[in-house]
Amino acid sequence: MADASNDDRPVYQAACHCGTVQFSVRLTDGVRTARRCNCSLCRRRGAVAVSANLDDISVTQGQEALTLYQFHTREAKHYFCSKCGIYTFHQRRSAPDQYGVNVACIEGMSPFDFPEVIVSEGRIHPKDRAGGGSRVAGWLRYESNPE
Questions:
Q1: pTM of the full structure
Q2: Which residues, other chains included, contact 33 with Cβ-Cβ below 8 Å and sequence gap of 6+?
Q3: N or C of the chain: less Cβ packing under 10 Å?
Q4: What angle do CA 69, 93, 109 make, to 5 degrees?
């Protein structure tokens, strides 16, 4: 993790569903980085992710239970708990110096805390697209039932 004495960003505690994998994380820009993606994996996984620098995640328990999944170019590294199957975080292909962190794993947070989340265009990855760059595919909206 980064030098805590010069960093005023909060440290969040996070865990998979069964609690086998536990980690602490500092987010790059709080929850303002929340987004989803419509690539083949993210469509199926359905998680809202926020950003953290590589050195801002520390697995405090269950490192041995993390399972790595890679596909296509095998550049991105997607980590899951081998016991409960929950996606915890992934090292991004588009920004290899960052992790995308599953909001649902962060204590006190839920994907339903966001009334609107940007969905990034991932069906054609920015690194595979002429000119590169991120594109917005759409927005995912959540409105709670007032009852």
A1: 0.87
A2: 27, 50, 51
A3: C
A4: 75
The answer to whether residue 127 sits within a structural domain is: yes
Domain interval for residue 10: 4-141
For the stretch 41-79, pLDDT in tens is 989 999 999 999 999 999 999 999 999 999 989 999 999
User: Is residue 146 included in any domain, yes or no?
Assistant: no
Q: Which pLDDT tens digit goes with each residue over 6-39?
A: 889 999 999 999 999 999 999 999 999 999 998 8
CA dist 19 and 101 (Å) reads 16
Q: Do the Cβ atoms of 142 and 112 come closer than 8 Å?
A: yes
In a domain, residue 29? The reply is: yes
Residues 86 and 88: their CA atoms lie apart, in Å, by 6
Q: How many domains does the chain have?
A: 1
Which CATH number characterizes residue 9's domain?
Answer: 2.170.150.70
